[in-house]
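User: Protein folding is very new to me. Would you mind checking the protein record under this note? It all follows right here:
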Amino acid sequence: MMGSTETGPESHKVPLYVSVYDSIFNKIKTGEFKPGEKLPSENILSEMFNISRGTLRQALLLLQEDGLVFNWQGKGNFVTANFKRLEAGLEKVSLIPLGFSKSDCTVILEDITFQPATEKVQENLQLGNSKLVAVFTLNFISEGQISCNTVLFIPYDKLDESNVSLEDKEQLKTFVLNYIDMNVVSAQTEVRVVEARESIAERMKVEKDKMLICFIEIMYSEFGIPVIYSKSHCRSEMFNFHINRRKL
């Protein structure tokens, strides 16, 4: 298709697939290829750039590695939905799945229960004995699958003060999202790679022992008071996690 251009004379400063990467990246930046939208087919892209499909696939793999594009098996290549948020990394305090999902995700409040705080929760939230906590279980749905399961422990009195109906899941979901947004300014986060135990596998509808990325967080108010303790189990193939670092 390309003739001699594909093999490239020595005057080429970068491999051809890198040039194609740059061209697609620019189309994403300018909005020609929009976040969350499907890219043109490989045949169309190959003709657009006058390259072979092999060279195109090298460029697409590089775009996938850099978190700009993801491949949905059987459906094609899509621009990462959170492309415009790439300037913020894991250092930004938010619900982990919302900032790093490869494609748009929906938050569903799966369950809410009330229980006495375990010793671990008491320690992390600095609660006294016999204190009740509200346990929110959130599922994040992406591409028709549960991409992440998050369990949040919040002191029950905070929920009680809100006068939210305990029978209305939408109200409860709104409460917990607003509670995080209004009260959390920092977090202490531990990241682990774990095997899905039976209860997590059943909850996320994945095979037992599947490797998941687990985020364990204590979230703090502006006064340094712990207000939320959470655990998130995420399917690594459905997220792009990144951290912005700088020399101190």
